[in-house]
Amino acid sequence: MEQITAIDQNHVQQIRALLTGNPQWLRTHLSVELCKLWDWQSPAGQYKDMACRNLLLKLERAGAIVLPPRQGKRTFHSRPAYPSVPHRQETINDHLKALVPLQISVASQRVEDYNLFNFLLSQYHYLSYRGAVGKNIKYLIRDVQGRPLACLLFGSAAWKTVPRDTFIGWNQKQREGNMQYLTNNTRFLILPWVRVPHLASYILSRIARRISADWQEKYGHPVYLLETFVDRSLFRGVCYQAANWIPVGQTKGRTRNDRNHNIQAPIKDIYVYPLIEEKPLTENDITAGIQKDLLVTSGCKSKQND
Question: Nearest-CA neighbor of 134 among 152, 157, 112?
């Protein structure tokens, strides 16, 4: 078995059987045993433990399995877990129209929302959450009844990403002078008991309408472009596509600390969403619009005028 797409119902049943028969196993033990069972190895003969754990998290998020609680090791650099916050967890599988109007709040404006946001993201997101560094905005989404549905975190944009920079059309000097006008959707969580078609793309569209004004209110300047990175081994990015985000390329499977090209990281699809007043009809119009708004308005000339 080489790829996650090979998973079928028989594999899910095997996972459930191992979980039922071995309730004392932790997540790492489970993933190793599955690698042995499925002969899931790298060309060098090493078990694909991390890939298997990512698969398990994806299955849990889809509601197919329930994994043992996380047993993370505390280290000098680790932060304490966020305190538990009571919240409603009943299954929500209504049509979208039954949930609107959504209640969208900036989580830093009320202590209750801030604490709930931190707990939900740390508890239920597959990457967990230990806090944000630098400029950021946290959104907590509830339905019309006040039930929590989702969390979104926007933070600092990637310092250098060739596909994004090529899409914008700026040079190094322009990029260094305008990074504050970009933000990255670093976390997007639909809570695991919420299964509502089109909800994710609808939320993205609603956030896109207000985030620049929210950023202006919090930091004194707007943002002109949103970006996100989607781990293509786990997700297809359908909600971003449905919300009209634009795929501009992929990462190279490296990290910003990989100066010697030795660190392997998942390849991710890069999506961007320009925030402009008049929505253009073509990608060329979008490119021109973001160059105009992002570069010219902020004091830089676009590449076309160099």
Answer: 157
Does residue 257 contact residue 230 with C-beta atoms inside 8 Å?
A: no
Q: Which class is domain 96-305?
A: alpha beta
Nearest CA to 223 out of 214, 212, 208, 207 is that of 212
Report the pLDDT averaged over residues 122-133: 86
* Alpha helix positions (H), the chain: 9-21, 27-38, 49-61, 111-124, 162-168, 172-178, 199-219, 238-242, 283-290
The alpha-carbon radius of gyration of the chain (Å, integer) is 21
Structural tokens at position 139: 């959104």
Residue 100 has pLDDT above 50, yes or no: yes
* pLDDT in the model for residue 303: 30
The dihedrals phi and psi of 268, each to the nearest 5 degrees, come to -125, 145
Taking the whole predicted model, whether its pTM rises above 0.90 is answered as no
Return d(Cα 143, Cα 149) in angstroms, integer. 7
Contact by Cβ (8 Å): 242, 198: yes
Q: How many CB atoms lie within 10 A of CB 212?
A: 18
pLDDT at 150: 96
- Phi, psi of 250, rounded to the nearest 5 degrees: -130, 160
List, as one string, the DSSP characters of 110-130: SHHHHHHHHHHHHHHSTT---
C-alpha separations of 298 from 13, 105, 219, 306 in Å: 56, 28, 15, 16
Token representation of residue 285 = 């119009």
- CATH 3.40.630.30 region(s) of the chain? 96-305
Query: How does DSSP assign 51-68, residue by residue?
Result: HHHHHHHHHHHTTS--PP
